């Protein structure tokens, strides 16, 4: 009997912050000896694009996100910039600025980048499956995505998910 | 403690120390010992959990200041 542990993840979010949990868990699971698959659907497809520069983080409508500066003296870094949603939504480039600051914070803390984690997943033979229905729905081409991605639907997901020890929706 | 290979995981955060360890162990042979130095405070629990789940033996886990040193024997 096959006693290898298995994990399946459904990745549905398309922002920089939410790209972390699927790739961190999948790469770690693979390192622990799990056979691992990630099924990317809806906005999660963004994580499979060749060009990942479109992954951004938005503090808008996200009261859980601390807005702190990743540079300057300690007293400056400790300030939490509590900027009202109404102001955030009006300032052009606010999301890009927040994304730049987040990337700097990530680098300062020795946290891996998303391209790095994705590559580590691929090296560890984590299987990536893209939902064909949403690929078409959003007007993507297979050529938008990295090599090694398989395309399938819900039934494809269940074929593996039904055999897993851990199954997560992110 | 004697070791066959050393991995510097200083400054790296979760899950990189574990992923680098796994990769380095793959290049080693059964019975060899890997020394890992990390600065991630979460690594103490993580390395114990990694050893338990993969069957590689955690020979020692020590903390000195802000550095954590682990010795793992490959299964």
Secondary structure layout:
The complex is a heterodimer of chains A (170) and B (75).
Chain A: E1 6-11, H1 16-31, E2 35-40, H2 74-77, H3 85-90, H4 94-108, H5 114-123, E3 127-131, H6 132-137, E4 150-152, H7 154-161, E5 166-169
Parallel strand pairs in A: 1-2, 1-5, 2-3, 3-4
Helix pairs in contact in A: 1-5
Chain B: E1 5-9, H1 16-26, E2 33-38, H2 43-54, E3 57-64, E4 67-73
Parallel strand pairs in B: 1-2
Antiparallel strand pairs in B: 2-4, 3-4
Primary descriptors:
heterodimer; A: 170 residues; alpha/beta; Hypothetical Protein Ychn, Chain: A; five-stranded parallel sheet; 7 helices; 5 strands; 38% helix; globular; B: 75 residues; alpha+beta; Translation Initiation Factor IF3; four-stranded mixed sheet; 2 helices; 4 strands; 31% helix
Mean pLDDT of chain B: 95
Quaternary state of the chains: heterodimer
Number of domains of chain B: 1
State the fourth-level CATH superfamily of chain B.
TusA-like domain
Spans of at least 5 consecutive residues with low confidence of chain B: none
Task: Give the class-level CATH name of the domain at 6-54 and 113-169 in chain A.
Answer: Alpha Beta
Strand order of the largest sheet of chain A: 4-3-2-1-5
Low-confidence stretches of chain A: none
**Count of alpha/pi helices of chain B:** 2
- Silhouette of chain B: globular
Q: What characterizes the major β-sheet of chain A? A: 5 strands, parallel
* Portion in beta strands of chain A: 5-15%
Specify the biggest β-sheet of chain B: 4 strands, mixed
Rg of chain B, rounded, reads 11 Å
What does this molecule look like?
The complex is a heterodimer of chains A (170) and B (75). Chain A has 170 residues and is α/β, with parallel strands linked by helices. Chain A has a domain at 6-54 and 113-169: 3-Layer(aba) Sandwich (Hypothetical Protein Ychn, Chain: A). Chain A contains 7 helices and 5 strands. In chain A, helix 6 (132-137) links the parallel strand 3 and strand 4. In chain B, strands 1-2-4-3 form a 4-stranded mixed beta sheet, covered by helices on one side. The longest helix of chain B has 12 residues, at 43-54. The radius of gyration of chain B is 11 Å and the shape is globular. Chain A binds chain B through residues 24, 27-28, 31-33, 109-112, 120, 123-124, and chain B through 11-16, 18-19, 21-23, 39-40, 50, 53-54.
